[in-house]
Write a structure and sequence with these properties.
CATH architecture: 3-Layer(aba) Sandwich
Low-confidence stretches: none
Oligomer: single chain
Strand content: 15-25%
Number of strands: 10
CATH superfamily: NAD(P)-binding Rossmann-like Domain
Shape: globular
Number of domains: 1
Structural class: alpha/beta
Distance between the termini: 32 Å
Helix content: 25-40%
Radius of gyration: 18 Å
Length: 311
C-alpha cells in the first residue's frame, strides 16, 4: 500500500473501498482547510469524528459539507479547544475522558504558522505553545482513550528543517525571534513528540507518527505578507487541500501501523532520514527523529506545563 500512493493522491483515493463504520476519530482544527477536509473524508466513509476548534461558530459553518457528505452512519460533533490556553486544553480533555468513549485515531491537525512574536495564555512562545505544548497536554490526558490498535497522527511540516528544538530557550527569552525559526522548532517538536509517544505506548498496541501534508494554500499563512510563503518554500509543487489531507488519512487509517509507527511520513509514504542542506525539501532531518532528543523534549515539556505523564 505504501507504494501505491504519492504526492498527488487525494483523501478519497486513500479511502477508496475503505469502510470506517464504527470508528471514532478526534481531529483538531476543524474550522478550516485540512481539518475540514480530513473530517469530511473520514465521515464520508462512515467514521464518527469529534472535531475540536477554538471558534465553534466558525467550525459549525465550515463543517456543513462534512454533514452533507457523511455516509454509513458517519457524522461529526464539535468540542471547544483553544490550544493556546492550557485551561481550555485541560477542560477539553476532561470532558472527553468523562464521556468515556474510546478513540481509534487522534489526528493533531490544528496549528499556527509564522506568527508575530507573542505568548500564549500560559506565557509560552505562541507557536511552540499552540503547536506542541497544547497538543502534548491534550493527547497525554486522553491517552487512555486510545486502546489497542489506536493511532496518533501529529501534523508536522517540511518546515522542521528550519530548526531543531531549543530546550534551553524554548520561549525566545534570550534568542532573537524569527517567525519561521519558531515555526521550525514547533514542527520538529511535533515529530519528536510522536517518536517518544510511540516508544511509550507501542507495547500496548498504540502507535504514533508525524506527517508533512505538503505545501497548500490555507488559512495557515494568514500571518504572512503577500508572497512571503512563496519565498519561504521556494520552488515547490503546491497541493490541493484534498491532496494535503491525504497523508494524515493514510497514516491514520490506511497504512500498516508497524510501517508508520515512530516515523515521519510525506506524500503517503514513510520519508527517508536525510542530513540535507537547509533548502532540501524532502525527507526528515536526523535531529527530528532522534530518540534521545525526543525523551529530552518530553521531560522539558512536562516541566513547562507543570504536569507529568506516566510512561
Amino acid at each position: 500500500m505504501s507504494n501505491v500512493f504519492g504526492a498527488e493522491t487525494t483523501t478519497d483515493q486513500v479511502l477508496d473501498g475503505v469502510d470506517l463504520s464504527g470508528k471514532r476519530i478526534l481531529v483538531t482544527g476543524v474550522s478550516a482547510g485540512l481539518g475540514v477536509e480530513t473530517a469530511r473524508a473520514l465521515t464520508a466513509h462512515g467514521a464518527q469524528v469529534v472535531g475540536a476548534a477554538r471558534d465553534l461558530g466558525k467550525a459549525e459553518r465550515a463543517t456543513q459539507p462534512v454533514w452533507e457528505q457523511a455516509r454509513n452512519g458517519g457524522g461529526i460533533t464539535l468540542v471547544q479547544l483553544d490550544l493556546a490556553s492550557l485551561a481550555s486544553v485541560r477542560a477539553c480533555a476532561d470532558g472527553l475522558v468523562a464521556d468515556g468513549r474510546p478513540f481509534d485515531v487522534v489526528i493533531a491537525n490544528a496549528g499556527v504558522m509564522a506568527t508575530p512574536f507573542g505568548k500564549t495564555a500560559d506565557g509560552f512562545e505562541t507557536q511552540f505553545g499552540a503547536n506542541h505544548l497544547g497538543h502534548f497536554v491534550l493527547i497525554n490526558r486522553i491517552a487512555g482513550l486510545l486502546g489497542e490498535g489506536g493511532r496518533l497522527v501529529n501534523l508536522s511540516s517540511a518546515g522542521h528543517r528550519f530548526a531543531d528544538v531549543d530546550l534551553e530557550d524554548p520561549n525566545f527569552d534570550r534568542t532573537e525571534y524569527r517567525d519561521f525559526l519558531a515555526y521550525g522548532r514547533s514542527k520538529t517538536a511535533n515529530i519528536l513528540f510522536a517518536v517518544e509517544f510511540d516508544r511509550r505506548r507501542r507495547a500496548r498496541g498504540v502507535r504514533a507518527t508525524a506527517v508533512h501534508p505538503g505545501v497548500i494554500r490555507t488559512e495557515l499563512a494568514r500571518h504572512l505578507a503577500p508572497g512571503a510563503l512563496d519565498q519561504a518554500v521556494g520552488q515547490t509543487t503546491w497541493k490541493t487541500i484534498p491532496q494535503g489531507a491525504a497523508t494524515s488519512v493514510w497514516a491514520g487509517v490506511a497504512a500498516p501501523a508497524e510501517l508508520v509507527g515512530g516515523r515521519y511520513c510525506e506524500d503517503c509514504h514513510v520519508a527517508e532520514v536525510v542530513d540535507g542542506t537547509p533548502d532540501q525539501r524532502g525527507g526528515v532531518r536526523p535531529y527530528a527523529v532522534d530518540p534521545e532528543r525526543a525523551k529530552a523534549l518530553w521531560a522539558k515539556s512536562e516541566e513547562m506545563v507543570g504536569e507529568r505523564f506516566a510512561a
